Amino acid sequence: MIPLLIVWSYFAILLALSLYGLHRVAMLYWYFRYSRCSTPHPLRPTAPEDYPPVTVQLPLYNEMYVTDRLIKAVSRLRYPRQRLRIQILDDSTDHTQDLARAVAADLSARGFLVTYHHRMDRQDYKAGALRAGMALSRDDFFAIFDADFLPPPDFLERTIPYFTDQRVGMVQARWGYVNEGYSLLTRLQAMLLDGHFVIEHSARYFSGRFFNFNGTAGIWRRQAIEEAGGWQGDTLTEDLDLSYRAQMKGWRFVFVPNLVCPSELPVDLHALRHQQYRWTKGSLQVCRKLLPAIWMAALPLRVKIEATCHLTANVNYLLMAALTVLTPASLVLRYRIGREGLLFWETSLVLFSVVSIGVFYLVTQVEQGRRWTARIGHIPLIVAFGIGMSINNARAVIDALRSRESPFVRTAKYGIESTGDAWTDKTYRSLGHGIPIAESCLALYLAASLGALVALKNWGALPLMLLLMAGFSYVSFLAVLHAKS
User: Fold this and answer.
1) pLDDT digits over 95-142, tens only?
2) Is 165 in the active site?
3) How do 141-144 and 218-221 pair as beta strands?
4) Which one of 91, 148, 194, 241 is the catalytic residue?
5) Does residue 45 belong to any structural domain of this protein?
């Protein structure tokens, strides 16, 4: 009974992963069908006097290595100076306070409208800081940039005109990366994020489905925020939460794929773990909070189905973690209990899941003008890396489903832009709880299972086992390499 339960659980998980693979295929279809259609160019004000006042909000928390870079980049925005207000919303407890105050004072002396605000309690974390900043401004538009971003000088010139359409509540730019080539880890992150922006955002936006503000590199209309209920801190992804609430109120969002806002990718695996945990848990919190209301709302069925796929997508990590544990046992048990007839279905489901991921991210690179021959070698690495991160992110899924409280842990950034920049001697480094130990144990478990499959001459299962083992071996290696000395 137990062997059969293991085998059928294994196939059920493969089937579920394949369904999410089908969703990736649908994304590609929407992208090619809709994103190539021309969109009306926004009406542009004819004179600088027509630009509305804008407040640029810069939420900070212990960002001493990137604060100066951020504020100076914002000061280079091309916009009428008397219509541009800069809010530094600082919750920091370290030297970041002094740095931010000094830069603010310098800009103020040069004629910029800059205000510095420091909170002591961090209530509701970033959502609380943005909400507090809104209460101190009378402007109708709020541009938001996280500490590791460098907005291009024409950012406001290229986003504000979209708001001539009174239905537009938010405009989102695409992320770029100043340190994409720093390491294999940053290259893999860039490819994964490119998939989100180049394909997912474009497919959702151009096909009329909901997409989300990404917490930074975007600009909001005050009325949209207020009608949606304002910034709320009951999830770890306040941006996703507000996005869905605003669109359910009828506000239209705009994605500008050719407006790229550079940012810094995490170079430390442990910082990346915190980021992935926050994003994964937050999305499931928003799912629990809003999905029932989405299905009860007067929305098109296609919007409801896509919202469900979007908000539940991170369950994939829990499925992958379970699959990793079950795969070796299932392969051996199926061999012993004579279920070889399932080989065709197993191979089909595995191939579809893996190939859908590979094609998705390869198309992402080609659509950016990059040669597929130069990127195809990264595709197995992307799949393996996603597998390796599954334990960390599965913990986030479980914590969200259990309603377990956890603080908002920001992603440490070190001002890394070139391969010559060092980060190992800098502050903010941290370890990842017991996750690295679990990942190392799984890598050893998979290595032993690989040996068992070789002994059984089950050659067809070796590619899947190698992929699983490679993923956990890679993150285990990085965990040791990036460990605090």
Assistant:
1) 999 999 999 999 999 999 999 999 988 999 999 999 999 999 999 999
2) no
3) antiparallel
4) 91
5) no
